Amino acid sequence: MAKIKIQKKDIWIDMTPMSDVMTLLLCFFMLTSTFLTPEPIQVTTPSSVSEAKIPENDVLNILVSPEGRIYVGTENKNNMQAMLDAVTDKFGITLNATQIKHFREDAMIGAPLNKMAEYLNLEPEKMAEVVQTLGIPTDSIDGGKSEFQEWVKAARDANPDIKLCIKCDATTPYKTIKAMMSELQDMNENRYQLITNLKTASEE
């Protein structure tokens, strides 16, 4: 008896719907994701049990390195520009267009006023390296406010609704943090949030 030969057919799968879904997912993640602003230094925050989330907008980030160097910045570039204008005008510092451009591209403010122009003259790659050795001084200027206080005041003037968030390294000396908080209290800035890592069950 002759065998019946079954004709083989190629299997074809329409991938158009899958491509549409992948495109929609990609667009969704691009539109809803928030990009993290690069920080001038790496900080390992201490652990805590608090689950409160920091606000995403109108935030002045205060970063304190393990060595006690202080950096400030906000993601709103218009506020950053207003802060720069206020501080440089007060202390008679003149910056050219290139220096202002480098300032707006920088992640955070971290150079003393007497080195600001020199720092902003550097190329961005060199700025990222040098800023790790600088930091905003907390020493008072002629018996008045410190440079740190001047930047915080300029941020408050630029945006009265701005919230302060402090991010310190777990190894930052306590006296540095205490001195910084005392300066904030001298300005009647008594409300701020401390950024920490959520403590896991294994750490308890």
Task: Explain what you see.
The chain has 204 residues and is α/β, with parallel strands linked by helices. The chain is 38% helix and 11% strand. The chain has 7 helices and 6 strands; from the N terminus they run H-E-E-E-H-H-H-H-H-E-H-E-E. The strands form 2 sheets. Strands 3-2-4-5 form a 4-stranded mixed beta sheet, covered by helices on one side. It has a two-stranded parallel ribbon with strand order 1-6. Strand 4, helix 7 and strand 5 form a beta-alpha-beta unit. Helix 2 (77-91) crosses helix 6. The radius of gyration is 25 Å and the shape is elongated. The N and C termini lie far apart (79 Å). The mean pLDDT is 80.
Task: Give the arrangement of secondary structure elements.
Layout: H1 16-32, E1 47-48, E2 59-64, E3 70-73, H2 77-91, H3 97-105, H4 116-120, H5 124-130, H6 147-158, E4 163-168, H7 174-186, E5 192-194, E6 197-198
Helix pairs in contact: 2-6
What structural keywords apply?
204 residues; alpha/beta; 6 strands
Number of helical elements? 7
From the N-terminal CA to the C-terminal CA, the straight-line distance is 79 Å
Biggest sheet layout? 4 strands, mixed
Count of individual beta strands? 6
Instruction: State the shape.
Output: elongated
Oligomeric state as shown: single chain
Q: From the helix content, strand content and strand pairing, which structural class follows? A: alpha/beta
Average pLDDT figure:
80
| Rg (C-alpha, Å) | 25 Å
Fraction of residues in H or I helices: 25-40%
Strand order, sheet with most strands:
3-2-4-5
One letter per element, helices H and strands E, the order comes to HEEEHHHHHEHEE
β-strand amount = 5-15%
Low-confidence stretches: none
